[in-house]
Design brief:
Layout: E1 3-5, E2 11-15, E3 31-34, E4 37-41, E5 50-56, H1 60-63, E6 69-78, E7 81-85, E8 91-96, E9 100-108, E10 116-121
Parallel strand pairs: 5-10
Antiparallel strand pairs: 1-5, 2-4, 2-7, 3-4, 6-9, 7-8, 9-10
């Protein structure tokens, strides 16, 4: 299920462990990652809320949406859960996974400043 959020800073994180290492910079990209965290820059949230969700790759009604563009593929280490959080640690969505490394595809409505982001976990 997609969650409508309005974080104070226009970035969401997909984290794989409680003590994760966030990227230090976007370096001109809209999506960057470390071994246990993926960061996505969003459309300015002062304009309005954005939507985020994490889904398994088998959820075709979300994964196959025509309005979503491919933003990147990443390997993320997890300790049993992948969670979407803002930079202040507020959690918006989560998905239980086996401990280990998981392939995550990031989809969004815009390659630079999406207002809808889906993290797709390969199962």
């Amino acid at each position: 299920m997609s969650h409508s959020i309005r974080p104070s800073y226009p970035v969401v994180l997909l984290v794989g462990r409680e003590e994760f290492t966030p990227p230090t910079s976007f370096g001109g990209a809209s999506v960057v990652a470390t071994r246990d965290c993926v960061a996505v820059g969003l459309r300015d949230t002062r304009v309005g809320p954005v939507r985020v969700q994490v889904v398994p790759s088998t959820e075709s009604e979300v994964v196959d949406r025509l309005d979503l563009e491919h933003l990147g593929d990443f390997e993320v280490e997890a300790e049993g859960q992948l969670a979407i959080r803002d930079v202040h640690g507020r959690e918006y969505d989560a998905m239980g996974v086996e401990p280990g490394t998981h392939r995550v595809t990031v989809l969004g409505t815009d390659p630079a400043e999406p207002d809808d982001v889906v993290f797709v976990v390969a199962v």
